[in-house]
Amino acid sequence: MTLPIPAPRAEGVTSTTPVPLYWREDGPADAPPLVLLHGGPGASHEYLYPQMLALAETHRVITYDQRGGGRSRSLDSSPITWRTQVEDLAAVLRELVPVASTPAAAPILAGYSWGALLAMLYAIEQRRQPTWPPIDRLLLVSPAPITSAWRALFDAALSARQLGPEIRALREQLTASGLRERDPAAFRQRSFELSVAGYFADVQRAESLTPFRVTARTQQSVWDSLGTFDLRDELRAVRLPVLVVHGREDPIPLESAVAVSEALNGRLVVLDACGHVPYVEQPEGLFNAARRFLA
């Protein structure tokens, strides 16, 4: 079952981004800053919580809903691209994190899925933008594919899982259960669980994921803006401490995570019996590795 999300220590909306972006802050106010980037694109921060709040035990965790999703949706119809999201992140860091003169005093970027790719894109672009805030290190959890070829493999693997016999049988059971009529809220919850079950090594663990919605227009716009991409060469020029955590049964190819760690000269932790959502499936392995890295 899903767990309640605690109220934030502080929250608000940005005032320096082209579109106001919702943000929340947790953890000790005087702890080292860590900016947590959710996946999607077009999703919101909430599905990372409450589990990822484990990072707030030792860090001042700041997260925000990226433009076009969650509480940062707007009536602005301008295309949202990867560059839009990277420039928004630069503005968020400038506004919400104290000015840092050196990378050693700078915030950590922790990204999940698309958020990990966003963190990498920021690290690449920040080298070319001397006025952008520096960052201290990268914690990359279940990073989205870094080439369009690996993204195609991910799409195919996820589709095959969602159409596979186990999830198909669970869908048929739900349809025949009469739950839609008896308890519409429970039916919607179970429908959500089955819609994301292919991301998990154990499909039953999907019941512990906080439900979320993706703004399809935003998602498509951002991915389209990347075109045919391969970030390996550009990542090799980034010089930061990096930890990559990836589930062995993630539908995103493990080869992509290996390539991320190699290009960034970082450490790779592969979690067994784990799909795309280690903070639900293998939280002990994820957070033990993260604590060692962040310390």
Folded structure, characterized:
The protein has two domains: 10-151 and 214-294, 3-Layer(aba) Sandwich (Rossmann fold), CATH 3.40.50; 155-208, no CATH class. Helix 1 (82-96) crosses helix 2 (114-126) and helix 4 (165-177) runs antiparallel to helix 6 (184-196). The protein is globular. It has an eight-stranded mixed sheet, sandwiched between helices. The mean pLDDT is 95. It has 295 residues and is of the alpha/beta class. The protein starts with 9 loop residues before the first strand and ends with a helix. 39% of the residues lie in helices and 13% in strands. It is built from eleven helices and eight strands. Helix 9 (254-263) links the parallel strand 7 (242-247) and strand 8.
Write the layout of secondary structure elements.
Layout: E1 10-13, E2 22-26, E3 33-37, E4 60-64, H1 82-96, E5 108-112, H2 114-126, E6 138-141, H3 148-162, H4 165-177, H5 179-182, H6 184-196, H7 216-226, H8 232-235, E7 242-247, H9 254-263, E8 267-271, H10 278-281, H11 283-294
Parallel strand pairs: 3-4, 3-5, 5-6, 6-7, 7-8
Antiparallel strand pairs: 1-2, 2-4
